Amino acid sequence: MRRLAAVLALVLAGCGGSHGPSATRPASAPAPAPRPIGVVGPLRVEVARSAQRGVSLARVAGSRLVLVSAETAGPVALASAAAAHPGIHFALVGASIDSSKRPNLVGLVLRGDQAARLAGIAAGLVLTDAGGSRASAAWVGPRKPGLTTAFSRGVHSAAPGATVLVAGSPPDPSRCKQAALGVLARGAVVVMAEGGLCAAGAIAAAHEANRPGIELADFELPSVAATIVAREALAGVYHGGEDLVFGAADGAIGVRELDPRIPPSVATLIRAAAQQLGRRKHVG
Question: Which residue ranges form the domains of the chain, and what is each CATH number?
């Protein structure tokens, strides 16, 4: 009872009794007005004054366009959000909306074949620097004919006499790592994988051998595509029910990140190749 009485006294003291001065609550600051562009996930959208970063799919009210990184949500989840908020436009950045099409949902797709070709050019430049033009580069992971062909073309454009090894593997990281270790044992100087956990395993194997590893995402710039669509939205143009494709000519394929094991002089050549690729009107 004494403890209860003491707690009650503290509560009354905090609220202000009939004999004491009345407590005044500070006026709450007005909530900031929502911005027209919402950004979910790791995207740098260059319309800073109009973009609100760090929003979630559960709190998008007030935005006219919400840009969502494919690293954060997939087409099914985004289609559900679009259905729940028919007055808001959504863009899935870096992936197709596939069969999850809605009039207020658009997919921003990056040209994977162009990214693979640029990755091949990067690998070929590494080969020329490290082991001569007849050294080997390796593609590791699930077989993707369109991507592996583009990668091989890129390698041979930079190192015509090079060998491209293809080590097919399920997308399991341990299996991809074992496949990468196999091609490294066969003399591969640089390892390439498409992405995800498979790429993490393959690149880990390359690093164990003190070789550089690259992946498709190193040459994809989803924030560029997101910025283009955001600027169109601010001008009153919205897209929905389709995929928009972005490539090198749009600036969406370039150098995002390079393995630190690639020498700076080679990295400079890779960035120059990316710029040259972006100047071409037709990139196959």
Answer: 37-110+222-248 (3.40.50.2300), 112-218+256-279 (3.40.50.2300)
